[in-house]
Hints:
By secondary structure, this protein is an alpha/beta fold. The protein has helices at about 15-20, 35-45, 55-60, 70-80, 85-100, 115, 125-140, 155-165, 190-200, 215-225, 240-250, 255-260, 275-280, 290-295, 300-310, 315-325, 330-345; strands at about 25-30, 105-110, 145-150, 175-180, 205-210, 230, 250-255, 285. The longest helix has 19 residues, at about 125-140. It binds hypoxanthine and zinc ion (ZN).
Amino acid sequence: MTMTAASTFVLPADLDAFIVGLPKAELHLHIEGSLEPELMFALAARNSVAIPYASVEDVRAAYAFSNLQDFLDIYYAGASVLLVRQDFHDLAMAYFERAHADGVRHAELMFDPQTHTDRGVPFADVIEGLLSAMAEAEARFGITSALILSFLRHLSEEAAFETLAMAEPWLDRIAAVGLDSSEVGHPPAKFERVFAAARAKGLKITAHAGEEGPPAYVHEALDLLNVDRIDHGNRALEDEALVARLVAEEMTLTVCPLSNHKLCVVDDLADHPLDRMLALGLKATINSDDPAYFGGYVADNYRAVAAARGLSREALATCARHSFTGSFLPEAAVAKHLAAIEAFVPES
Ligand code: HPA
Ligand code: ZN
């Protein structure tokens, strides 16, 4: 499998080495969004699925988005090549190889079961393919990982309940539930009961909020879904009282700089609010979201904000610390990773 070109974010070599070497967790990654065009073509051929592209270059040329929905239409179409257990395994292994190269020690993978079960792919094949790759990644690379089952918010709450029921036999293998897809018009309130049911089953909670949706959606995620963290959260910055609350509650935000740029949440990376979030005391982290579609994996997201906003090593290390304190890892594992960061920072 050919890899995409090396990073387009050119930094001084020592800063680049610092970013890659820094122990980090990735908390906001849609595994379906790590489907590189090369693998899309290989799976389309293996599964005899027709895709509307003539070449890998053709696929990449289609990745110009002016908003979230533009992207989602292409992302769901791309996922149609994923049909059997081995496909999900291969998809996740390709991600773990990239994550390992980027210095990721722990990854929390979102997956969208409804994107697959609605096409007739059994839930068991989706999750067993991912789980076998997660075991292989731990054995080969020492990367630990967890699964976040994400509900598609453009579908009904009833459909989310059906998905939660399908997951029942694997609940001990799932860390959390999440909420993704088209945000505006689908507020967290729509899913209050299914998140309460998931919480009652012992699952953690995360939700996309404030990517395109207003600060009110972030309030709802806190008040109605009882989230353990917020995915994106950019628009919380429009509401001073909300920022104060997120700071007081030490709420982790899983920020995705390249995604924000590609989906026009920020017009220019030079205006990205990551360092402002840190200055306000928010627990911001750096993540890739859908790396195959947005132009880079987690280290590229660190590079991009470092280059565009001049983030210091200390600020980058703070984001890495937040990635572990905001993870769903047990306390002892968090402490081990934090110690690894403290050992790495002075020697680098
Ligand atoms: N936002 C919302 N839903 C998504 C995204 C995103 O960035 N990526 C995959 N599903
Ligand atoms: Zn996302």
